[in-house]
């Protein structure tokens, strides 16, 4: 089975997801190394103002997901954001969005598997990285083969574990702040002045914004899964709960870390939570957070594996990838699409292991930026498809501005700048392919795409 009939059958069989389960899936898909490790880079770049960066990133992320969720509530689409881009701007937008997302997530998965190998060598230092990457890759594929219900259960468990690890840090850090550990009560390591909050100035804050946005990467996966909600109208509710939870635990935990340790003692190679508690004799902390890092990286890798397989399936169903990949098997799993994803994943692992570290880091930075380009398209699609009042327009503009601030900040950071230009190179390559496909599309009969009137005519604010 393939095409629209397949999608309809799959939807009728799998629409059993509740809003709070979707929230848990979102938390499981989002909390990853972008927060557990990337937050250290944000603090190193901007000092205590990293807290503001995470708040602004949370606001920007909320606006993006709320836009995607409202479109899903009005007209659920299996292709999620790429389908809405197609409705808003034409086939070229859906085609390019799908392949930008697929290629970026594929690169990111390779880096996640490499990172998982590095974390695992904390306990098994003599084991080769490729062996760990292979083990985690196989385990991720097994999770996907359990179907959407199995994937949902795994992500729910991962979400609880990751939030529990952060809450454990908050409790231990609170005990340290109140002098319950070693009898010492630390002094606050910063002052509430401009120099205290912004030690590297506004430029440092600007360059840190991208790392704050990385910590919220994964909302696209929630958008894809929102199509399987029992009541798609509850998609905005699921996103609001998820983002309020994440923003709260992110900011509170980082505030405590910065309170315990001066901001300039954080490094780019170690989690801020381990650094914050190093001076206390708590030997199990490094092991607990190393385990949390592995769980975080694995769950985001599995979520990415699910998302890009689904995107490839919808691309094939729409004729934007070979129809071969639109076939499904048991549990409605698109095995052929999954097979191509696995091949790409293997190549990504090989590249990550053999390219010099700094060059591969540039590619993964580029891939992260390409996700934010997808977010920009979500906002632009929403603005085109929905009728907005003044308040709704202001909200969309705010979201666009915040994401552009995050992206443009990479131009002022030596470590991120090459990734920015590489991301433009990827966009240019996909644009060339898209232009070359236009002649093929002209020779095909026009698609009967649902009109924009399927979306709410109510003014959104």
Cα-to-Cα separation, first versus last residue:
41 Å
Low-confidence runs of at least 5 consecutive residues: 1-13, 449-458
Choose one word for the global shape: globular
What is the strand content? under 5%
Mean pLDDT: 83
Give Rg in angstroms.
22 Å
Would you count the extended β strands for me? Answer: 0
User: Main sheet, how many strands, which sense, barrel?
Assistant: none
How many helices in DSSP terms? 19
Helix content: over 70%
The succession of helices and strands, N to C, reads HHHHHHHHHHHHHHHHHHH
Structural class: mainly alpha
Report on this model:
This protein starts with a helix and ends in a 19-residue tail after the last helix. The longest helix is centred in the middle third of the chain and has 33 residues, at 285-317. It contains 19 helices and no strands. Residues 1-13 and 449-458 have low confidence and may be disordered. The protein is globular, with a radius of gyration of 22 Å. It has helices spanning 3-14, 19-30, 33-36, 38-46, 50-74, 81-89, 91-120, 129-145, 147-177, 194-197, 201-214, 219-225, 235-260, 272-276, 285-317, 335-354, 357-385, 390-408, 417-442. The chain is mostly helical. 72% of the residues lie in helices and 0% in strands. Helix 5 (50-74) packs antiparallel against helix 13, helix 5 crosses helix 18 (390-408) and helix 8 (129-145) packs across helix 15.
Which features does this protein show?
single chain, 19 helices, 461 residues, 0% strand
List the helices and strands and how they pair.
Blueprint: H1 3-14, H2 19-30, H3 33-36, H4 38-46, H5 50-74, H6 81-89, H7 91-120, H8 129-145, H9 147-177, H10 194-197, H11 201-214, H12 219-225, H13 235-260, H14 272-276, H15 285-317, H16 335-354, H17 357-385, H18 390-408, H19 417-442
Helix pairs in contact: 2-9, 2-12, 2-13, 4-11, 5-11, 5-12, 5-13, 5-17, 5-18, 6-7, 6-17, 7-8, 7-15, 7-16, 7-17, 7-19, 8-15, 8-16, 9-13, 9-15, 11-18, 15-16, 17-18, 17-19
